[in-house]
Amino acid sequence: MPGEDGKGYLSRLADEMEAVQLRMGTELLGHADALLGNPKAEAGELRFLANRLVEALRDALRVADSRGRRLPGLDEDESGAFG
């Protein structure tokens, strides 16, 4: 079947989206370090940061889950651990 080798259009698109999500998560960590190091950070800023961190973690777990499903030899319990 076309695309099963991970080199089809949808696989490449998914890889690119995953790379963007992980890069954004990495950048967010830098902002989090700076904000959390600021003793004058306001509650609203911290809530906003917490929400963005939750989104980034959800994206990272989705990437990990997706990649896990593509690895040979994983049983269903292992591949669905992040779902």
Please, what is the oligomeric state? single chain
Q: What percent strand?
A: under 5%
Helix content: over 70%
Write down the secondary-structure element order.
HHH
Largest sheet: none
SS field, number of helical segments: 3
* Parts with pLDDT < 50 across at least 5 consecutive residues: none
Residue-averaged pLDDT, rounded?
A: 82
Cα gyration radius (Å): 17 Å
Structural class: mainly alpha
The count of strands amounts to 0
Q: What's the N-to-C terminus distance?
A: 26 Å
Q: Which overall shape is indicated by the principal axes computed on the Cα atoms?
A: elongated
Blueprint (SSEs and pairs):
Elements: H1 9-36, H2 43-70, H3 76-79
Helix pairs in contact: 1-2
Overview of the molecule:
- The chain has 83 residues and is mostly helical.
- Helices cover 72% and strands 0% of the residues.
- The protein is built from three helices and no strands.
- Helix 1 (9-36) runs antiparallel to helix 2.
- It is elongated.
Keywords:
single chain, 83 residues, mainly alpha, elongated
Summarize the structure.
The chain is mainly alpha-helical and 83 residues long. It is built from three helices and no strands.
